[in-house]
Amino acid sequence: MPTGVILAIIIIGLLLLMFGLAAILIYSYAVRVAYRFFARPQPRPAYDKSPLSIDQSTIFGRGQNWFYSNRMNVLDWQMTAFDGIKLYAYFIPAQKKSTRDVVVLVHGFNDMPSVMAAYAQLHLEKRDCHILIPHLRAHGMSEGNFVGYGLFDSQDLVMWMQYLETRLGSDIKVILHGRSMGAAAVLMTAGSGIAPKSLKGVIADSSFDALDKQMAFLIKRKYKNQLRPFLLLVQRVVLKRFGFPIEKASPESVASRIKVPVLLFHGTDDVLVPSYMSENIFNRIRAGKRICLIEGAAHVMGYDAAPEKYSAEIEKFRESISDNEWQRLIGRVPSDEEDE
Questions:
Q1: What domains, with CATH codes, occur in the chain?
Q2: What is the rounded distance in angstroms from the CA atom of residue 50 to the CA atom of residue 29?
Q3: Would you put residue 224 in left (φ > 0), alpha (ψ -120 to 50) or beta?
Q4: How confident is the model at residue 27, as a pLDDT?
């Protein structure tokens, strides 16, 4: 065999080997990315306990401190999800058993559920209400090996509302209030078409508009390129390993089906979930809607950055739901500069 032919075969073999190794490396990295996004962030603790120390430099840390200081007044509820896993929740009963108002507070990715205690204080300062703080699947005391990103969680929230109706009565009035991934969950719950009639309003703080777009944004921020083929590979890995269809985790795709009023919050300095994602959701909602952009606030830090403005908007929202005049709140909250 001529030397040139042998050399060509060797070169082709080396190229195929390099291509195969590159494909293996790319697939392995796609698997790592999939598990980083979807695998349970923290192991399920053996029992529920307070942190050894709580940073009280933010309103959320102070809320956590209040929560654990009053832990004896908090009930622990459990429920079995549609796929058989055990879900856990904190329940803070209203002072008056006859109270019909219920607020369901939904935490974000890798959050401790108790971080929502600051929002519980906010609602309780305004009026007497029951508070439910679910531990989302794969978080806190709830079971689950992978994160629901609002898609699976929306089904869980429907079941929690049904559970609330069973325990408190079918005439309750529920407001869902979530932040980050929890905000996506409450929006997808409202747009699912199966939410109970007890759902009266939704407050969504710093939601992504679609999970695939959120992942693309984070990858582009890191690598300066969207790497679309790689993201498609990650989607296939996630579907195969977790049975999770990433493209269906999309609040914007169901926003037009929401029939209850919606209040959106987002910080203008959010570098994790850009504020235009809440704008995209806002533009698709056909029901009563209002959006409040908090100037200078980072991801989910709007309440900490502007507590008075945040609180005032929620009170307006709640009052408008009560008097059935939420249509008058449709639009945007004026910016700080416009207020001046």
A1: 1-38+215-244 (no CATH), 55-210+249-339 (3.40.50.1820)
A2: 35
A3: left
A4: 82
Residues in Cβ contact with 210 at an 8 Å cutoff, skipping those fewer than 6 apart: 247, 249, 250, 251, 252, 253
Range with the poorest average pLDDT among 133-142, 183-192, 323-332: 323-332
Tell me the per-residue pLDDT of 188-217, one tens digit each, with 9 for 90 and over: 999 999 999 999 999 999 999 999 999 999
% of the chain at pLDDT higher than 90: 76
Sheet holding 101-106, edge to edge: 75-80, 86-92, 130-135, 101-106, 173-179, 199-205, 262-267, 289-294, 331-332
> Does residue 106 contact residue 180 with C-beta atoms inside 8 Å?
no
Question: Do 146 and 38 touch, CB atoms closer than 8 A?
Answer: yes
Distance between terminal CA atoms of the chain?
86
Q: Is 218 exposed, middle or buried (0-12, 13-18, 19+ CB in 10 A)?
A: middle
pTM value? 0.91
